[in-house]
Amino acid sequence: MNIENQVLGLIKLSDYIKAFLAKKPEDHNEDDVNIELLLEKSQIENPWFVVDNQKFALQQWADLLTEVNIKNWLKNYSISATSKRVGLILAGNIPLVGFHDVISVVLSNHIPVIKLSSKDRYLIPFLLKKWNEFSDGQVQFEFVEKLANFDAVIATGSNNTARYLEYYFKNHLSIIRKNRTSIAVLKGDETNEELQLLANDIFQYFGLGCRNVTRIFIPQDFVIDRLFESFIGFQDIINHNKYANNYDYNRAVYLLNQDKFWDNNFVMLKEDDKLFSPLSVINFSRYESLEEVKGFIAENEEDIQCIVAKDELELNSIYFGEAQNPGLDTYADNVDTMKFLEVV
User: Fold this and answer.
1) Parallel, antiparallel, or unpaired: how do β-strands 262-263 and 268-271 relate?
2) Is the pLDDT of residue 90 over 90?
3) Which of 72, 146, 229, 244 would suit a FRET pair with 6, their CA atoms being 20 to 30 Å apart?
């Protein structure tokens, strides 16, 4: 396969997506209408995939797939001289979450053998077909219901599923990913604008991604009301039926158990040391010294995807509002997929 054609095809795909997203509905051509129908079909099959979130994911990829970004990414790796078949078991918690693996395999000169998530069956096949068209047929891929005839595998699942996958693929080169989540650490002097950006890190994709913040560390004297004030821009999230069901259920459980929690009618804050929180709930804890936070991070390193905080806290963090904007060189579970593919 010709990698130059593949890279050029990705750049053209980026331009194609940008052009579609920039158009008003009244300016859509037949191809644009078909994309809109695809997005609506995806939402019907998986109500979490609202059209706006699918378009957000498309925009993120369109912005990322520039010539400069792609070439700066690839220059750090050697391309395999021999094409191998790499099985991909994709997640479906947020739109296009598996697309990075697909791109990585193709640009490593391998062939992705893809088992799609039942929750995300349309966008990735559509984008791959377009990428192949824009690359003069230089993008090979295969969709399967069950993996067979492969040389390596990259799989994503729940912690329970991962144990099964680790056993099933124990004789193959593999990357097996488990559940992860993200945290935020506040210094206490954050501006209202920064806290509003943090709200994006919490609520984008309804909080279903591993890069969504589910636990916040705040200083002892931090006023909780400031968080609720920063969340207001996402108050319409409660109008989504599946999210509202989670909110109502978790609220009822807390009331029955007489748990202490803070509530603003669309999200709850609960003082809890747990890293993971139920959907519609954000766990928080107050800290006296940053060493407490660093200790928690060290103990839970394998379960934390990313940390949102100010650079001055020196926590190897990303800035507020950037959780759902990973670069091409940002890898799930911090395992370098491209390095893995070099030795397949």
Assistant:
1) antiparallel
2) yes
3) 146
